[in-house]
Structures are given as C-alpha cells and as structure tokens.
Amino acid sequence: MQKLGKLNPTKDDIFAAVRAVHKRCRGAYGVIAMITGYGIVGFRDPNGIRPACYGVREDDNGNKEYMIASESVAMNAAGFTLVRDIAPGEAVYIETDGTLYTQQCAEEPHLFPCIFEHVYFARPDSIIDKVSVYKARLRMGETLADKVLRERPDHDIDVVMPIPDTSRTSAMQLAHRLGVKFREGFIKNRYIGRTFIMPGQKMRKKSVRQKLNPIDLEFRGKNVMLVDDSIVRGTTCKEIVQMARDAGARNVYFASAAPPVRYPNVYGIDMPSASELIAHDRTVEEIRDLIGADWLLYQDLDDLITCVNDVNEDIEGWECSVFTGQYVTGDVDKAYLDRLEDARNDDSRSKQQGGDAGDNGIIDLHNDED
C-alpha cells in the first residue's frame, strides 16, 4: 500500500500486493494479516505447501462472519463451519462489513501439500485439503501392521504402545490389525517443552526422562512394540527404548509411522541440520543399533503417500523433501543446504546464545515428538 501511495486500499490493491509477494517470495507460507480499519487478508504459497482455510457463521442478527485459520479444527471450536481450503496462490480478503472477496494471485499454482502435517503437525480432528488427518493416521497404522506381517508373519509382539501423543491413532490401528493388546505405557508430563528442536544434546536427553514416565506393570516381561510418528534426531526414541528396558520389557521393538527423516526441512519446520538427523547416510540396521532397539520398522514412503491420498483430485503430489531430498520449489541446492547446516547445527546455536545451548538454550515450542 505504501508503494501504491494509497491511504484507502481497495480489494484490487490488496490482491495486487499479494501478487507482488508471490513474485518476490519463494518457499512455503500461509499468511493471515489484519489491515487495521479495512479488513483481514489470508493467502497461501503458490505450491500450497502450508495449509490455510476459511469458514463462516452467522451472528445474532443473521449477518455472516468469516474466519481464516491454518486448520479447520480452530473454526469448529469457535462455532464456524468450514467453507473450503484456500487454494495455492489464492488470496481471501474480508472487509470489516463482512464482504468476502477471493482471487487467484499466482501465475502457476500447484497443490503439493506438506505430508508432515498429516504425520505429525496437524491435529487429528482437522481436515486439510479435504483429507481427514485422523483417517490418514489410521491408515498409517494399518500399513505399518501390514509391513510387520510381511517382514515377520510369526511376530511375538505382546503389546503395542504409542509414544504420546501424535502416534496414538496409528498405534491403536496397528494393534487392532495385528490382533494384539494396545496399552498406554507412558504418561506424558505436559509441562516439559518439545524435545527434538531443543538446542543442545544435553538438554534434549535430560528432558525426555522428565517428559515421559513409564508404567512398569505394562512392560514387565513383555515384548513391546513402541510406535512414534517419526524419528528425527533419535534422542527421544533412544531414551524411550532404554526406559522400556528399565521398566522390565523383555524385547523392545520400535515402529515409525513415517519413513526415515534423512534431509532437513526448508519450508518452515525447524528440523535440525542434515548431520544431526539420525537417518542421514545410515541404514535402518545402523539406526536400530544406535537407538538400542531389538527391531526397527519404518513406514514405506509409497505406503505413506497412499495413506494421505484421498478424495481430493486437485492434489498433484506431496511435499516429501525430508524423506526424499527433493524440494518442490526447485530452488534448493547444495550451497543453500550448506548455509542451512551452518546456521542450524548445535554448535552454531550455542554460539548464537553465548554459551552451552545444552544448559542455557531457549526452547522453541514449535514441535513435539522426536
């Protein structure tokens, strides 16, 4: 608006500004902004990597009110009904009187949603791009169970346990399909920060045991299959495997509802540098040895994609770069990743914070499990 030199922006001015953002910015973003005295604008990156949607409700006088959010569940809680997802590159502008305008502001939009939203980030009761997160996670458990039966048809799993909270849906369905018991073996302390992005290995390791407490009775003398949504650094699952052994488990098996995370994320998820990812340049057996499990099972990427593919024919593909190293924007090269490595590794964070990040680091509450 400042460049246009206008004090009273029209909807066309708003959409022109969004078009300029799309031309200037690369990557993933979902934006909701209030223009004081005029209205609210929301828009989504041209690849639809990050989610955004809008909903509607009527006030006591029968007038329509609109809401823009990243997940549909936020609207449900506020009494709004989901209208639809904002399309990749599209902008939604709502004036203060409730008038709504939409316009496509990108030249070549494509829908490549982030698959990690369904693996971990989104709430299970959300619907993103017409795909139910809950149903997707149920299917992740089913395909994991099918892989168990392929690899070990005569498995000796006594009980399946989720690592709270995100893996609970998949773990429950895995246990049901295998016909074994499902139990809550760990109780979560909700006052401990998120572990896998904590700055410093010392802090991450200490926080895992403060965060989860095992119920010994559920472990004693049993072959336990632990299920987590994903494995990033490996800090959490290594400690959890040892906690299960300390609680008396005979054998500890570990299953990940996602494939190995081998590459850093550049689209807004604060994942560590490549060298700090436990799966980077390692085989599954090498990872199993590092976390101390008796058996390690990862979801296959093709199965994961099958789990999230649903009724939306507009989805052209999925942003899976943390598993494949292929970045949908096409502008991420080795030089960029090297700069990212220097900026994100533990040593750099420690220097930026002026000391040992493992003791004095700031906890970014952006993510949760390992």
Q: How would you portray this structure in words?
A:
- By secondary structure, the chain is an alpha/beta fold.
- The chain has two domains: 11-110, no CATH class; 137-313, Rossmann fold.
- The protein has 14 helices and 16 strands.
- It has helices spanning 11-24, 72-77, 116-121, 133-151, 168-178, 201-211, 216-219, 235-246, 284-291, 301-308, 321-324, 334-344, 346-352, 357-360, and strands spanning 30-35, 39-44, 53-58, 64-69, 81-85, 90-95, 100-104, 127-128, 131-132, 159-162, 181-182, 186-188, 212-214, 223-228, 251-256, 295-298.
- Strands 11-10-14-15-16 form a five-stranded parallel β-sheet, with helices on both faces. A four-stranded antiparallel β-sheet has the order 1-2-6-7, covered by helices on one side. A three-stranded antiparallel β-sheet has the order 4-3-5.
- The protein is globular.
Would you tell me which CATH topology of the largest domain applies? Rossmann fold
Structural class by helix and strand composition? alpha/beta
The largest sheet, given as strand count, sense and whether it forms a barrel, is: 5 strands, parallel
Radius of gyration: 22 Å
Concise description?
The protein has 370 residues and is α/β, with parallel strands linked by helices.
Helices, strands, pairings?
Elements: H1 11-24, E1 30-35, E2 39-44, E3 53-58, E4 64-69, H2 72-77, E5 81-85, E6 90-95, E7 100-104, H3 116-121, E8 127-128, E9 131-132, H4 133-151, E10 159-162, H5 168-178, E11 181-182, E12 186-188, H6 201-211, E13 212-214, H7 216-219, E14 223-228, H8 235-246, E15 251-256, H9 284-291, E16 295-298, H10 301-308, H11 321-324, H12 334-344, H13 346-352, H14 357-360
Parallel strand pairs: 10-11, 10-14, 14-15, 15-16
Antiparallel strand pairs: 1-2, 2-6, 3-4, 3-5, 6-7, 8-9, 12-13
